[in-house]
Specification:
With 155 residues, the chain is of the alpha/beta class. It is built from 3 helices and 7 strands. The two termini are 25 Å apart.
């Protein structure tokens, strides 16, 4: 499955991967070494915990490597602002709450609703994709049905 990332999001993932490989791996390896010194590995909870931490770390590294290998970077210069697309900012009027809200449409990896970054796979993101300025979209959310009017789109 393709991962959509902004250039900033890709850089953040690359930095995190580098940190996990160069810093966290060393820390986990040291923890395993220290735990080995406690003796019998069959009854060594510190060793078991360190090995579990290693497995979790390696799984996270693999997941990030896979995302980076299969990613498509959203080019700001190629964003079509005639409709809502990946990577654009869209300002909407929420009729239910009588307020304007701005979202950035991003891939699920970068999604952070508290910062206004919503996934293209989320109910709101899906409803807004391909909408144009002036369009009103309806979307079912866990909080209820929303009606959002697209006010502006920018890259």
């Amino acid at each position: 499955m393709k991962t959509y990332l902004t250039a900033e999001g890709k850089k953040e993932l690359e930095d995190k991967l580098e940190y996990l490989k160069t810093v966290k791996r060393v820390e986990v390896t040291k923890a395993i070494g220290i735990a080995r010194e406690y003796g019998d590995l069959k009854e060594n909870s510190e060793y078991d915990a360190a090995k579990e931490a290693q497995a979790i770390l390696e799984a996270e590294i693999l997941e990030i490597e896979t995302k980076l290998r299969d990613c498509e970077v959203i080019d700001k210069k190629k964003i079509d602002t005639s409709k809502v697309t990946m990577g654009c900012f869209v300002k909407v009027f929420d009729k239910e709450y009588d307020e304007e809200v701005e979202y950035k449409i991003v891939g699920s990896t970068e999604s952070n609703p508290l910062k206004g970054m919503i996934s293209n796979e989320s109910p709101v993101g899906l409803a807004l994709l391909n909408a144009s300025v002036g369009d009103t979209v309806s979307v079912e959310t866990p909080a209820g049905k929303l009606k959002l009017k697209v006010l502006s789109i920018r890259s």
